[in-house]
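Lab meeting prep.
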Amino acid sequence: MKTDTIILFFFSLLFYACSNSPNQGIAEKPNIIIIFADDMGYGDLSCYGNPVNKTPNLDKLANEGIKLTSFYVAAPVCTPSRAGLLTGRYPIRHLPGNLGPESKHGLPQSEVTIAEILKTEGYATAAIGKWHLGHATPALLPTGRGFDMFYGLPYSNDMIKPWVQTDTALMMYENEKRIREVGYVQEGLTDEYTQKAIDFIDQNK
């Protein structure tokens, strides 16, 4: 039995969704890749005309996929923009502001996510990278919101000292389990997330 897969790959910088084709002929269900980047505008990419930044890998994705020229996020900051993307609703309705390390709430359970909808269509789902939609209880984490697997951070990677005055340790999660503290040195996060995404795709072909 062929399995469709979708990965929601949340980074500090990138958000991916990826799925394998269900058959070798005409795909009834598409592969999906969504890159969701904090603090980046379309004009930052060379495929949209930036004369300085060179982004050949993203340019290749744009050339092989669909390039949108009138597409806007629902909010200018992390939490509400992700809430809008996952639910298709204006975040003013449910999460209008950023969550922090001590936040006790998150995306309301009444909101239906894209992951929950895609699971009804036979997709395997994972969230990899930065979540930032609630972490105080397991029900608020990605595995409580329609994802089969989560590997990543519960909120922004810079919400630690010296940038944010908090005594809450920033923890890496695997599903609902906190597996280690993430500190000031973070050079390996991008490679770690990328490998987890590749592993999930390989396991769910």
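Slide two material, second protein:
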Amino acid sequence: MKFSETLEFGHEDRKRIYEYVESHGEVDFEEARDVLHVDPGGFRHHVAILKRDGYLEERDGMLRAAFEEGTAEEYEVDDVEFVVRPARQDDLSGIVGAIRRVAEQGSYIVAESVADEIDHDDALLRHNEIESRMFFVATVGDDVVGWVHLYAPELDKLAHTAELTVGVLDDYQGLGIGSHLLERGLEWAASNGYEKVYQSAPSTNEYAIEFLKAQGWETEAVREDHYKIDGEYVDEVMMAVEL
């Protein structure tokens, strides 16, 4: 299922099943059936149709939303091997840890709010009638060392835009990981019909601002004294790129 795909279920029980699984990230087949009070035969049939249509997938008796957003890409720079790939549900804790580590100096406020949101949410990836949320990660071995996150509200007047955050742990900066993640995120946005991607940062986050400028992003506006960090007022720099 692509994020640009309109959700059409053809049956109210199929919609209920998808929404339950999508909102929980991953659920046990029998538990979902019992919670939703769908008779066993009907539940199995509806799940089979949802799997056939690419909305759900099942692994080891666990149901999850099926997102087909590309394969893993392997890189090696300065003897460091890393992989950039679509995130999975079991990456949630690693992503939260990476975002909090990058944001701990108070210079990446939007990313910090993303970490808070997914840390209190059951599902990492989302695609429903209200919002879409996609992550790609960079991993070294089994550890998440960087991420790119895209968020898009499902509103007609904003359907062409998506908000992006991207970050890499300090120990792995300078290897091009951030550029690969950003490129992967923008490719995803373009392939799903988004025309503009944006993000905001405090003016004190000079590294992020210069990084985005080097990637072709432009400053659209500056909101003076929008943040208050360590008792000091700080401007918000609003940046965007057209796809």
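Talking points for slide two:
The mean pLDDT is 91.
Helices lie at 12-24, 29-36, 40-52, 92-103, 109-119, 177-191, 206-214.
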